[in-house]
Amino acid sequence: MQAAVLTIMKAGPHPLNFLNYTKPYGASDFPPEFATVFPKTNQREAWTAHKAWTAVDYVGGGKNLKVEYGVLAALCAEMIDTNCLALYEPREQTLIPNDGSLRQELKRRWGSRLT
Question: The domain containing residue 72 runs over which residues?
Answer without folding.
Answer: 2-113
